[in-house]
Write a structure and sequence with these properties.
alpha/beta; Nucleotidyltransferase, domain 5; 2 domains; four-stranded mixed β-sheet; 8 helices
Length: 265
């Protein structure tokens, strides 16, 4: 049996997926990224390999592709491919009916339109500001003195929302702290935050030409409050994936590795 790997080194989390020659996912791991991207990739891949009997080092893989923020820092990769292409391929092999992605990473937001073969049809990216990204949600959760998981559910109980006007993460955090200090309902503040981010996602999705059959990828895809806000703002039903949406970049990289590795024969 041949094995193929994808290593997605993100700014916040590093993910690794291993596929067998039939395209079945046989191992995966997600770890918090270290300061050094190369160390992150080494640690994630080693942990993924240890979950498979008979595999112990990167050379045991027939082909490996690096992707993500630190894709150039995966020393054992045969090549690297952009995370945009890898997310598209990962979603495509998970659910071919999905034609568009809103990917919310640690430092950027992307809108991606998928072609019929899993390649990228068009995309748009907001990488100029951290507002609306994973880092932004971490700052908001800290302002509420909550975990990310607790914060992601807080807005679901809100009957109304309190608009958040600041566009910058620093100013938004200050605005939220002020509102909390004034005793405003926390769930309504959280709802305002989620809608503000959803509007940013709407802009990226529109620029990428996404209209329907949209899914979310990245760690923020697990944010239930954000998912609901996006559905309300975009007036669509977000398609749920049957594989961890945070793994889509690594999964797509592994699938590209499988295709390229099998073609070598």
């Amino acid at each position: 049996m041949k094995y193929f790997g994808g290593c997605d080194v993100g700014s916040t989390y590093t993910k690794c997926v291993i596929l067998d020659e039939n395209g079945s996912m046989v191992s995966d791991i997600t770890i918090r990224s270290k300061m050094n991207s190369e160390e992150s990739s080494k640690a994630a891949l080693q942990m993924a390999l240890e979950r498979l009997e008979g595999l112990s080092c990167p050379s045991d893989l027939d082909y490996l592709i690096g992707t993500g923020y630190g894709r150039n820092k995966v020393p054992f990769a045969d090549e690297n491919i952009s995370e945009i292409s890898c997310h598209a391929m990962g979603v495509h092999i998970t659910n071919p009916k999905v034609k568009a992605i809103i990917d919310i990473g640690g430092q950027d937001v992307k809108g991606i339109s998928i072609d019929t073969d899993g390649t990228v049809k068009s995309f748009a990216m907001n990488d100029k500001c951290a507002a609306g990204t994973g880092r932004f949600f971490e700052a908001m959760a800290n302002a509420f003195e909550m975990s990310i998981e607790e914060f992601s559910r807080l807005s679901l109980s809100a009957k109304n929302l309190i608009p958040i006007t600041a566009q910058c993460t620093v100013f938004a955090e200050s605005e939220v702290i002020t509102l909390v200090g004034e005793g405003k309902p926390r769930d309504e503040i959280a709802a305002g935050i989620q809608v503000a981010v959803a509007k940013r996602c709407f802009v990226m999705a529109k620029k990428a030409g996404a209209k329907d059959n949209v899914t979310l990828t990245g760690g923020c895809a697990k944010n239930e409050g954000l998912k609901k806000a996006i559905e309300d703002v975009l007036r669509i039903k977000v398609v749920a994936l049957n594989t961890d949406p945070q793994l889509m970049g690594a999964l797509g990289a592994a699938e590209y590795a499988r295709q390229k590795g099998m073609d070598k024969e």
